[in-house]
Amino acid sequence: MFVLAQAPTDRPIDSVTGCSFRVPGHTGQLLTYETQQVSTDSATRLVAYRWPAQGAPRGALIIVHGMAEHARRYARLAEYLAAAGIDVHAFDLRGHGATTAAIDHGDLGERCSWQTLVDDVQRVRQRAARDVGSLPIFLYGHSLGSFLAMSVLQQYGDAYAGGILSGSDRPGRSQCGAAALLARIECARLGTDGVSRPLQQLIIGAYDRRLSRYYGSVRENAWLSSDAAAVDAYNGDPDCGFSLRAGAWHTLLRGIARSSSSYRLRQLPMRLPLLIMAGRDDPMGGFGRGPQRMARALDGDGQRALELRVYDGQRHELLHDTAADTVMADVRSWLDRWVGRAGPGTPNSPLESKE
Q: What average pLDDT does this structure show over 63-69?
């Protein structure tokens, strides 16, 4: 069943001035989180974070963050859900956050493939399963993380109780192919660890240009949020907004094209609950059209528990925009609905691909 919800954004919001980070019902007391290290099959050790459920856990959620940001930006959502009995796990992707030294941000590593990133998510899932046993485990991916989450669910969907995709898109095959070709050319010109200004301008720079068609001249990274304070926070964060290396672009663009193909979409378990969330004013998602294309494709393939929520007036980062509290409440409501219906999880799902 495909449910298209026009998500209201006029719900009362208990927020601080600027970006709406305040959680509904949040008392102001910060919940503690644990910092962990997750070993991989290479020399890389992923820096991971856990917000333990308050009281008896009902399930777990794994968060996969987006490009040029880090997992600690999801702390408010994690605190909110932990207070509701959800054990929350997140980690910094390779080339991001504390997993990689700041001087190497944007570099995924010489031997990193798209499958390597997928396997990293599964290692974090194994860590989460040790904490919650057979309780249901859900997966949340934002932006780049949404494409990784999609690949994970395509390969290991039976190990999850549901998936949430935020700030996603369904790019055309030719669009991804052309960008991946440019990345390959830039790798030959600059080396895989070179920073390509043409790639940054073609992809990231295009989002502000698209937004300016509707709003006139906009500030740098205004496409992320309609809240000026949130954009300032992003621009001032030393672990955000860095440029990816040419080799990283090539790896990610090929992976995004792969996860978005019609063949791959049909690899999702048909009964897997999915929530797709998007901002109506998000230029990355074609102002709501990209997530709608994805939802229609999944619905046409027989996805039985699919919901699309489009938030009017919101841009790319729904958790850092003016309706953030509404979005977080919707995430909790969706999890509440499905956590009781889910069967036992698979505590130690294999890393080997089904393919």
A: 98
